[in-house]
Design brief:
Oligomer: single chain
Helix content: over 70%
Structural class: mainly alpha
Number of strands: 0
Radius of gyration: 18 Å
């Protein structure tokens, strides 16, 4: 449990918020749409800041897995540590449980656990996106393909279910953000009608 807690705190490090403060003296949450991540940092801080945030976010996932592996913990706990890092990124204890979508931290975790399989899945997801131009659909294909690839290459069952399991925080965050967007739009329309 201690390792899971440390992984969560590691994931909770608000990289986009910190870089925004350090490089531009601004609060990314107030400057943008309240979301945190490399994309928002690019728009509000610039390329250098965005690259730093991307490296930090991927690094949080990698570090969580490496710490658990270095301690010689069972694979299930190693995966749990990676999942905790993603949860920490999405719902940071340092930002009143706000955060990003966890895409880069998820990539860091998966790259540490199944690097070559992830590369293949990214290629498939990239092709699907190029054809459909639908981010959500192509991301879903990526995770499903990764799980199936692990299954058919004889990976341990823990690694087979890991891509689906680790996608859950991203899906939940996407749903909560979509609901927030709808609420904001409803508020805008209501104000327009009153005006």
């Amino acid at each position: 449990m201690l390792t899971i807690g440390v992984a969560y705190l590691l994931g909770s490090i608000p990289s986009a918020y910190l870089i925004g403060r350090w490089l531009k003296g601004l609060d990314i949450r107030e400057a943008g749409d309240g979301r945190l991540g490399a994309a928002v940092t690019f728009r509000r801080v610039g390329m250098a800041g965005s690259v730093i945030v991307a490296v930090m976010d991927v690094g949080k996932g990698v570090a969580a897995v490496m710490i658990a592996e270095t301690l010689g913990l069972p694979l299930a706990v190693v995966v749990g540590a990676g999942l905790a890092a993603v949860v920490g990124h999405n719902w940071s204890i340092f930002l009143q449980f706000k955060g990003g979508k966890g895409a880069l931290t998820t990539c860091g975790v998966l790259a540490s656990l199944m690097f070559w399989q992830l590369l293949a899945a990214l290629a498939v997801g990239g092709v699907v996106f190029a054809i459909t131009r639908k981010t959500g659909f192509s991301t879903g294909v990526l995770f499903c393909f990764l799980a199936l690839l692990n299954l058919f290459t004889g990976s341990l069952i823990v690694l087979v279910i890991t891509p689906i399991l680790i996608a859950v925080p991203m899906v939940l965050k996407h749903i909560s953000m979509s609901k927030a967007d709808v609420a904001v739009m409803a508020g805008v329309e209501s104000q327009s009608e009153k005006g």
